[in-house]
Amino acid sequence: MHNLATVILRHRTRTGSHYDWLIEQSHTTPTRHPLTAMRLPHPPPCWLAAGAMVGDALPPHRRRYLRFQGSLTDHRGSVVRVDGGRCLALQWTDHQRLLAVRTRDFRGLMLCMRLRSMRWRAHALTLDALPGGLSPGCLARWLNE
Q: I want to staple 125 with a disulfide (CB 3.0 to 4.6 A). Which of 1, 2, 31, 109 is the partner?
């Protein structure tokens, strides 16, 4: 399991706003763009109430976006950090990701399943929904650190 940095940015554009969820990729993956990104409709405080959200994969982002806030180039709008913290990648495949997420506004599990090439369904879950074989006690301690 990898302990990964994560940040959620509110991205405002001329046509509206959404939330960009950025997750650090494993240190074992050499890349110029080490952040995986997904566009979500809701901020972390609403994830459990929303249940399942459909999100779109975004191109990989540079590490600087873990700390960046402000106007984007090429009239792409602006971003403001609304939350951040750490993730444990419990499962990470091309089609499914199970993450334990610990941020200021959300502590729980996110199960992300690929629907189509760039489209994902993200389910916010509590520890009660943890798949067999994983220790809920250990994760509960990590989530509450």
A: 109
